[in-house]
Every structure is written in structure tokens, then in C-alpha cells.
């Protein structure tokens, strides 16, 4: 198909743009259907959203045959705004599969928390469409638009529990921090455009490689400011302050979505602008990203250490700080890309780590959603005795936590960390590798502490309310009664836990699958 504008004819490759397009069309279909579906049949909207995300993920299969580009300049077909290469497909798979697992988590939450179904599913699909568009963006304008399409619906999702003060505060903090990040990003992009005269990433790279001396400081400032804007999106320290309160205040499936898809969006943006657009300014962004990585993993782990089961601390807040620390690990290969001749291998390590993290972190949030059905406070202490009432859920959560810690049998987590560590060493960033090793050891404490809570003996009595209460029947029942009469697990929630566990087990048995897949991602 062709479109004509100002006398220019441009071809559109509809197959290449199918994944984000299908997600966007599914969102519009849900929004329209919401106007006509009666209240008692609103659950059909969730099934429609799940089907749309599954179809969008399946549309990636025809694209595996080779790179495809569209929205190219008529004067130069090699300069395009959208490219579906291996890197794009890997990140789009992460985004769409993560959104699909989030949708499975959300089916029960939408009904139980009385969230507006049409709005929820439309916002989730819209955000997923923007997140799927971003890795294919090859010009700064498309990149910023995709970033905002992914982010703006997330604000509303966080604050969708109307009348809930925590939800409203979380949405406000998230909104203000994201607006600041967008303003900073646009300022940096404007400086880069002023220095190079182009918005396409390949042309920006050429322009920065031969920037006039009088514009060098402007270009360097643009590179640094653009990086700061994306650091907000990834929750890198010191731009992480919004994360804990946002995760705790948001509906649990939305927190899970932000922890995985939100990070994928930010890291994809950083990778595209640094490795594709700013390679000649590696001296600026390389050290900056390395320092951000060290600060982020350290601050996240130290804060997570403070979340203890004996102090009624929130499990979701612990997962929030854990996600901050994991962001630090994800930044390490990006920093290493500035110091090696083959940045593609380094970026492949980030993609491999992100795929592992997405599967096990969504699995941990899925088990947290199960616990939240009977213990809405979702304290770490509420997981005590989970094995007694929900043995499969406890084993799954224990496995997910061990993967995040990088301990057997979570072999995929260990392999991902070793890969990132080796990339840092090969790049000559020995100090960063040491910082990472220390932080991995620190993280073992709170991951293992939470894992141990799962297998402790449930507290007896009606006030035990916690771990035994995971399988609670009526309020006030004894711990043993709760263990004997657990509530049924909704099928979509069970499917989400099962899919995450199966994926983690398969990859732990054959970690080379994900490493080989990611090693061919870029560039």
C-alpha cells in the first residue's frame, strides 16, 4: 500500500508494523465494545484483550525471516523510521508476552476490585502498543511519541482505584516524575537536533561523528540530558523516588506491568539512543551509565534489606526495591557497550537478562496477587506457612525468588548474572563487576529470608492472619482451618503462575536458548 503526501510516495509494510498495530486495534475494539456490552457481561472485554495480545505476539512469527523497514525517506530508502530487526522482535516479544501475563493477572483483579473494565483493558492495550512500537523506532520523534504512548495510559492505570487515597497519590507521583522525564528528554533531543540537523538515529550518529567544534558542547549536553530523561523511565538512582509508593498504591497487576514493561521501555530507549545514535559520544554516556548502574543496584539492595517479615513490611514494596536493584544489573551491559568493539554482544546480555527477569518477576507478582486475595495488606509476614496451604504456589514463589537471587535451581538467573558479569570484565569495567558481585551477595539475604518464610510453620489462632491466611476461608478462622479450606484459585491467575514457572524451569534447564536468542539481537 502507498500513501501520497506533498507529492511524495511512500510504501508501508503492514506486516512489519503488525505487532503494535494489532495491540492498538484491539484496544479500540475493547473501548467501542464497552459502550454496548451490558454490565454483567463485562468479563468478555478481558477475553477480547487477551486474544488481541496473543494475536499481536503471534504476528511476530512471520517477521523472523529477516529485517524489514518501513516509513523510509523517499530520497534515501536506507533511512527509515521503523525497523523490525532481531533486536526489535526480541523486545516486542518481551513486551507482548509480559502484557499477556499481566492481562491474565488482571482478569480477577478487575472484577474483585470493581475497576472499570472497559477503561482498564483499553489503557493496558494502548500502553502495550506504545511499548511494542518503541524498539522499532529509528528516529527521535517516533521514539519520544512511542515512549509517551506507553507511559500516558500507565498514569491512569495506577490511579484507576477511584476513591483510594494511596492509588491517587501513587498516580500523582508517577505522573509528575514522568512529566519531568519527558520534558528533560525533549530538551536533550532538541539540543541533539540543533547540533546534527537530523532526527533519524543513523543520521544523528553520522552528524555527531563530525560535529563542528563550536557545537561540540551543545551536542555533549544533548547526549547527557537525553540520557537523564531515560534514566527517569528506568528508575535509575537518583531518579527512582517514585517507584516504591507507585508500586504499593497501584493495583497489583499494574505494579507487575510497570516492573517489567515499564523497565523494558526505558532500557530500550537508552539502548537505541546510546548505541545507535550516540556511539561517537561514548566517552560521555559510557561512564555515566556505569555510575548509574553502580548507584542503582546498591541503593535498591540496601533499601530492600530494610523490608523484613517481623516488622509488617509490604511484600510489594520489597519487590519494588528489588526491581530497582535489578535495573542496576540491566544497566551494566549498556555501560560496557561504550568500551567494546562489538556492542551487540553487550546489548544481547541486557536483552537476555531482561527476558529472564520478566518471566520470574511477573511470576512473583502473580503469587503476590494470589496472596492478596485473602491478605490485602500483602505483608511479607502474610506468606508465612504458604507451603502448608498452597504448596504449589509456595514452591513457585520460592523458585522465582531463587532465580532473582541467581541461585540453583534458578539456573537461568545465575547464567544471566554470570553473562552480565563477564561482559563488564571484558569491557575493562572491573570495578563495576566487583560492585555487582557485592550486590548479588547482599541480595541473597532478603531473597532467602522471604523464601524461608514460605516454609515456616503457620501461626495458630485467629490472629495469625498472615501466612496461614493465604488460604483463608472466613475471617477469624484458625490457621489450621484456613489451610484446610483454601479459596479456589481463578483459572487466569493459575495460568499466569503456571506459565511463568514453566518458562523459568525450561530456561533453567536449557539457559543457552535465551542466551543464543539474545546474542543475535543487535546491531
Automatic annotation (TrEMBL):
Q: Which residues cross the membrane?
A: 14-37, 44-66, 86-110, 117-134, 140-160, 172-194, 218-242, 254-278, 284-306, 318-339, 351-372, 392-416, 428-448, 491-514
Bilayer topology reads: Multi-pass membrane protein
Which UniProt keywords are given for this protein, alphabetically ordered? Answer: Cell membrane, Membrane, NAD, Quinone, Translocase, Transmembrane, Transmembrane helix, Transport
Primary place of residence?
A: membrane
Q: Does the keyword Transmembrane apply?
A: yes
Q: Which Pfam families does the record associate with it?
A: Proton_antipo_M
Q: Where is the NADH:quinone oxidoreductase/Mrp antiporter transmembrane domain?
A: 137-442
Q: Which domain of life is it from?
A: Bacteria
Cellular compartment(s): Cell membrane; Endomembrane system; Membrane
Reaction(s) the record says it catalyses:
a quinone + NADH + 5 H(+)(in) = a quinol + NAD(+) + 4 H(+)(out)
Return the EC number: 7.1.1.-
Free-text function comment from the UniProt entry: NDH-1 shuttles electrons from NADH, via FMN and iron-sulfur (Fe-S) centers, to quinones in the respiratory chain. The immediate electron acceptor for the enzyme in this species is believed to be a menaquinone. Couples the redox reaction to proton translocation (for every two electrons transferred, four hydrogen ions are translocated across the cytoplasmic membrane), and thus conserves the redox energy in a proton gradient.
The similarity annotation says:
Belongs to the complex I subunit 2 family.
Q: How does it assemble?
A: NDH-1 is composed of 14 different subunits. Subunits NuoA, H, J, K, L, M, N constitute the membrane sector of the complex.
Q: What is this protein called?
A: NADH-quinone oxidoreductase subunit N
Which organism does this sequence originate in?
Streptomyces pathocidini
Gene coding for it? nuoN
Amino acid at each position: 500500500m502507498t500513501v501520497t503526501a506533498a507529492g511524495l510516495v511512500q510504501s508501508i509494510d503492514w506486516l512489519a508494523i503488525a505487532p503494535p498495530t494489532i495491540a492498538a486495534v484491539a484496544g479500540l475494539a475493547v473501548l467501542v465494545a464497552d459502550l454496548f456490552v451490558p454490565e454483567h457481561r463485562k468479563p468478555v472485554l478481558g477475553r477480547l484483550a487477551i486474544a488481541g495480545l496473543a494475536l499481536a505476539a503471534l504476528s511476530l512469527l512471520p517477521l523472523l525471516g529477516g529485517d524489514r523497514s518501513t516509513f523510509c525517506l523517499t530520497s534515501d530508502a536506507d533511512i527509515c523510521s521503523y525497523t523490525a530487526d532481531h533486536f526489535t522482535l526480541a523486545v516486542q516479544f518481551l513486551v507482548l508476552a509480559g502484557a499477556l501475563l499481566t492481562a491474565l493477572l488482571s482478569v480477577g483483579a478487575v472484577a474483585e476490585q470493581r475497576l472499570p473494565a472497559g477503561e482498564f483493558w483499553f489503557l493496558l492495550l494502548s500502553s502495550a502498543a506504545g511499548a511494542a512500537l518503541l524498539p522499532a523506532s529509528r528516529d527521535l520523534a517516533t521514539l519520544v511519541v512511542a515512549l509517551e504512548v506507553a507511559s500516558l495510559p500507565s498514569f491512569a492505570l495506577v490511579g484507576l482505584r477511584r476513591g483510594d487515597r494511596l492509588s491517587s497519590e501513587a498516580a500523582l507521583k508517577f505522573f509528575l516524575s514522568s512529566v519531568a522525564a519527558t520534558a528533560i528528554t525533549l530538551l536533550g533531543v532538541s539540543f541533539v537536533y540543533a547540533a546534527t540537523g537530523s532526527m533519524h538515529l543513523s543520521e544523528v550518529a553520522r552528524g555527531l561523528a563530525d560535529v563542528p567544534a563550536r557545537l561540540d558542547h551543545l551536542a555533549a549536553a544533548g547526549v547527557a540530558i537525553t540520557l537523564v530523561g531515560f534514566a527517569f523511565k528506568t528508575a535509575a538512582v537518583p531518579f527512582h523516588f517514585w517507584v516504591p509508593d507507585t508500586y504499593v498504591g497501584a493495583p497489583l497487576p499494574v505494579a507487575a506491568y510497570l516492573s517489567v514493561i515499564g523497565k523494558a521501555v526505558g532500557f530500550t530507549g537508552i539502548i537505541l539512543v546510546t548505541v545507535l545514535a550516540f556511539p561517537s559520544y561514548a566517552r560521555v554516556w559510557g561512564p555515566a551509565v556505569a555510575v548509574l548502574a553502580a548507584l542503582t543496584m546498591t541503593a535498591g539492595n540496601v533499601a530492600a534489606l530494610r523490608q523484613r517479615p517481623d516488622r509488617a513490611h509490604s511484600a510489594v514494596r520489597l519487590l519494588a526495591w528489588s526491581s530497582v536493584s535489578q535495573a542496576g544489573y540491566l544497566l551494566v551491559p549498556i555501560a560496557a557497550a561504550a568500551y567494546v568493539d562489538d556492542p551487540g554482544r553487550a546489548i544481547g546480555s541486557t536483552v537476555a537478562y531482561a527476558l529472564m527477569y520478566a518471566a520470574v518477576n511477573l511470576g512473583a507478582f502473580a503469587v503476590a496477587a494470589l496472596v492478596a486475595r485473602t491478605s490485602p495488606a500483602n505483608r511479607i509476614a502474610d506468606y508465612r506457612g504458604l507451603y502448608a496451604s498452597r504448596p504449589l504456589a509456595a514452591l513457585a514463589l520460592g523458585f522465582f525468588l531463587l532465580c532473582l537471587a541467581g541461585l540453583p535451581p534458578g539456573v537461568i538467573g545465575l547464567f544471566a548474572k554470570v553473562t552480565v558479569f563477564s561482559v563488564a570484565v571484558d569491557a575493562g569495567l572491573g570495578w563495576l563487576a566487583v560492585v555487582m558481585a557485592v550486590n548479588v551477595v547482599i541480595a541473597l539475604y532478603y531473597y532467602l529470608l522471604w523464601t524461608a518464610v514460605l516454609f515456616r510453620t503457620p501461626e495458630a489462632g485467629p490472629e495469625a492472619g498472615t501466612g496461614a491466611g493465604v488460604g483463608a476461608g472466613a475471617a477469624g478462622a484458625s490457621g489450621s482451618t484456613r489451610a484446610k479450606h483454601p479459596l479456589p484459585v481463578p483459572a487466569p491467575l493459575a495460568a499466569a503462575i503456571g506459565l511463568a514457572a514453566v518458562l523459568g524451569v525450561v530456561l533453567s534447564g536449557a539457559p543457552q536458548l535465551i542466551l543464543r536468542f539474545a546474542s543475535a539481537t543487535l546491531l
